[in-house]
Specification:
Layout: H1 3-6, H2 11-28, H3 35-38, H4 41-45, H5 59-73, H6 78-91, H7 97-104, H8 106-121, H9 130-140, H10 144-160, H11 167-187, H12 191-205, H13 207-219, H14 221-241, E1 246-252, H15 255-265, E2 276-282, H16 289-303, E3 305-306, E4 312-313, E5 326-332, E6 336-344, H17 345-353, H18 367-382, H19 387-390, E7 402-406, E8 412-416, H20 421-428, H21 430-434, E9 436-441, E10 444-446, E11 458-462, H22 479-510, H23 517-526, H24 532-540, H25 546-559, H26 568-571, E12 580-581, E13 587-589, E14 599-601, E15 613-617, E16 623-627, H27 633-639, E17 644-645, E18 647-649, E19 657-666, H28 671-680, E20 686-695, E21 698-707, H29 710-721, E22 726-731
Parallel strand pairs: 2-6, 14-16
Antiparallel strand pairs: 1-2, 3-5, 4-5, 5-6, 7-8, 9-10, 9-11, 12-14, 13-18, 15-16, 15-17, 19-21, 19-22, 20-21
Helix pairs in contact: 2-5, 5-6, 5-10, 6-8, 7-8, 8-10, 9-11, 10-11, 10-12, 11-12, 12-13, 13-15, 20-22, 22-24
């Protein structure tokens, strides 16, 4: 595009600009201080600068599109709209940030400065290490609104470059939109924008796949709409009968989401069963949101067979970006799996517009971070004014908790705030960290304890003779470095311990002393050592004299001639975690048998076939089966009544399950042998664990026996009671 063409808007572009300006005026009528927006009309519609940028995109029109998109999809905030509209004028030098501050306010100028800071840095290494680069952007932009502005700008740009002649540039833009801005949008709760960015990215990077999926969706739209209508009708009737006020609708999943499923499952689109989802949006007060959502789910589960293994409960435990919803999957008509989402009107607003736009990396937990997010959520939920206005002063203090630094080659690493040169070295590689003696930071030599600042370039200096030391644990801040140092110190300790153990063994052999391991361990603990390795390492370091210790050992051996009873813990058999079952014929839920159902028997009460049981849906969506007399039953019923579900035995026994018995009796020779022998003779029953303790002529034993059902357990209990010396037998 030559200079003359760049200076002139086409008639179509001019018309669109005027139409958007009129639309913005209508938006401005309901905005506070709307007079400031009116001042921009002549600046945008009659700019003296170039009308198009170097890629041929109309600058003023792009700014107006971005402002309108932000108002429609996020929030109609005066300062943000002004900043977006002023961007081309500031970039073209038509007005300075000082002039913006004087004429439109300090906050607008601050937002423009934040955008400029991100744009300046975005040219460095932005094609790789996107996860770290997201964090660097956030650390540079101290106002979360700047990040949301950049996300919306990316969306408008992606909408505007279809069939652009510079295909390589389009691919770069699409890559950045998918790997950077779509991920930021996801973490900030802007799901609608995230989905569109991913779809457009797929369109520009793999147009053939995009077109195939879009064409197939269009072909099946009529049948899909008919099925959704068939599914919704009876559900709507039942929910209305329960007195719920709600909206219910179906939506087709995004093209990029479908493509990801096709790749992951290695199937074509015909075999993707969840092409659409049903959403139930309930009108209910805040205090009844959870109970009404679970009520709606229970109604659905009575109508259609539910799959608890695919349930996702983000009501009890919301996502870190504030998303709340209850997702369930049921077997609908024609044996098709259907995903149904339950949420309140408030939850839907947050999910659709991402107004609870706050950030936290997965796995990062701290009281101040949680408090920061809770403050934002409370403000958004109770605000009368626009949320963006209220978030104006909410700076991203949480990002003071991380720093970002480069290697000399330009690779970017994310580290905790306060990270040192030693942290950086371990982040590169364990061996680099273990041999680190210092670093060169921005050309200057620094110690391993030097704290890194944002944007530093760090080169690590190593030495072959260096090795981790105990004091290093007080220098590093990252969990990765700390764990690697501890691992290395443990390896050093183990090596020293082996030397010490060899010293003691050799000295004992010379004195013809045969060491008893049990007595040796007891004596080591009496010496004040919690772990034997520490004792042997000290012996290798000559802190303990092997000869003197052997003398102490012989004296102790003479005193302890009585054979000690070995603790039950040493004989305890290994017990597996909660048994997970998938045989649908063992249980029925709501009177229906489910093929392939995944469920767990709770370890707190160990139910077996024939027990009176109930089901509890945990926050992870797993169905756990408890006995009705479970010690935790009353607490569960009191706190989570809406997550209980009826569970019955189907009439067909399944695998053997563990049951725990407590036995009290007279401490007599052979009584334990008689009990274990009796159990071993019972067909289908196995003794899985036994622990026995005796005191004052009485013994108390705890047995774990695997049985097929309650009837077999009762028979075993009856037989144990006939053993001479047994006073009582009870199940626990």
């Amino acid at each position: 595009m030559d200079t003359k063409e760049r200076d002139i808007l086409s008639p179509a572009e001019r018309r669109e600009l005027l139409n958007l300006a009129a639309g913005m005026r209508r938006y401005a009528e309901g905005m506070p201080d709307n007079g400031r927006l009116a001042q921009l009309r002549s600046l945008l519609c009659g700019s003296k600068g170039a009308a198009h940028d170097a890629k041929g995109l109309p600058k003023a029109l792009m700014a107006m599109r971005t402002a309108m998109t932000f108002a429609e999809m996020v929030d109609c905030d005066t300062d943000i709209i002004l900043a977006l509209l002023l961007t081309p004028a500031v970039n073209d030098g038509l007005c300075s940030l000082e002039e913006v501050s004087h004429q439109w306010g300090d906050d607008v100028a601050s937002l423009l400065a934040g955008v400029s800071a991100v744009e300046r840095f975005s040219g460095k290494n932005n094609a790789v290490n996107q996860d770290n680069f997201r964090g660097l952007m956030l650390s540079l932009a101290d106002d979360i609104r700047v990040i949301i502005m950049m996300i919306v700008r990316s969306l408008v740009l992606m909408r505007s470059i279809n069939h652009h002649p510079d295909e390589e540039w389009v691919r770069d833009v699409a890559f950045e939109a998918n790997c950077l801005y779509a991920q930021l949008a996801h973490r900030l709760g802007l799901y609608k924008i995230k989905g569109e960015l991913e779809d457009l990215s797929l369109k520009y990077t793999n147009r053939e796949i995009y077109t195939q999926i879009a064409h197939k969706l269009n072909e099946t739209k009529r049948a899909r709409d008919a099925y959704i209508k068939q599914f919704i009708a009876p559900v709507k009737t039942k929910l209305e009968a329960a007195g719920l006020k709600f909206d219910i609708k179906g939506r087709t999943k995004s093209i990029s989401s479908i493509w990801n499923k096709m790749k992951k499952q290695k199937v074509d689109i015909q075999h993707i069963y969840d092409l659409f989802a049903i959403r139930v949006i309930i009108d209910t007060p805040r205090e009844k949101e959870k109970s009404d959502c679970w009520l709606a789910y229970s109604i659905l589960a009575d109508m259609y067979t539910a799959n608890p293994a695919r349930m996702k409960d983000w009501i009890s435990l919301p996502k870190s970006n504030g998303y709340e919803s209850l997702h369930a999957t049921v077997m609908g008509p024609d044996s098709k799996w259907v995903e149904v989402q339950f949420r309140s009107r408030r939850m839907d607003l947050v999910a659709e517009k991402g107004l609870a736009a706050h950030w936290r990396y997965k796995g990062v937990k701290s009281d101040s971070t949680d408090q920061w997010m809770n403050n934002i959520r409370d403000i958004l939920e109770t605000a009368d004014a626009g949320p963006m206005q209220l978030m104006k002063d909410m700076k991203m203090d949480v990002w003071g908790r991380e720093v970002f630094a480069f290697t000399p080659k330009g690779d970017l690493f994310r580290l905790p705030a306060g990270a040192t040169v030693l942290d950086f070295a371990f982040h590169i590689h364990t061996n680099v960290g273990a041999r680190c003696t210092g670093g060169v930071v921005n050309g200057a030599h620094r110690k391993i304890s030097y704290k890194i600042a944002n944007g530093d370039t760090v080169e690590i200096i190593t030495s072959a003779s260096q090795q981790p030391r105990q004091e290093w644990l007080g220098i590093v801040t990252s969990s990765k470095a700390r764990n690697k140092i501890k691992q290395s110190l443990n390896e050093q300790l183990q090596h020293q311990a082996e030397l010490g153990k060899e010293m003691l063994s050799r000295r004992a052999k010379n004195r013809k002393i045969e060491l008893d391991e049990a007595l040796l361990m007891k004596l080591i603990k009496r010496q004040g050592y919690k772990f034997a390795n520490e004792f042997y390492a000290d012996m290798a370091a000559e802190k303990i004299d092997p000869a003197r210790f052997l003398t102490t050992y012989i004296d102790s051996l003479d005193r302890d001639t009585e054979t000690e009873r070995v603790s039950a813990e040493e004989f305890e058999l290994v017990r597996n975690d909660e048994d997970t079952h998938s045989k649908s014929e063992v249980l029925t839920i709501g009177g229906k048998t489910i093929s392939g159902l995944q469920y767990k028997f709770a370890r707190c009460c160990n139910p077996i076939y024939g027990d009176d049981v109930f089901g509890f849906i945990s926050s992870e969506g797993t169905l756990k089966v408890h006995r009705r007399d479970c010690p935790n039953a009353s607490n569960i019923r009191e706190r989570y009544p809406y997550r209980l579900i009826r569970v019955d035995w189907s009439g067909h026994t399944g695998d053997s399950l563990p049951a725990t018995l407590r036995i009290v009796g007279i401490d007599d020779i052979g009584i334990v042998t008689n009990i274990t022998s009796l159990i071993s003779k019972e067909s289908g029953a196995n003794l899985r664990n036994i622990s026995v303790d005796s005191h004052d002529g009485m013994f108390q034993g705890v047995l774990v026996v695997t049985v097929t059902d309650q009837r077999q357990l009762n028979a075993i209990v009856k037989k144990i009671k006939t053993v001479k010396g047994v006073k009582s037998v009870e199940r626990i």
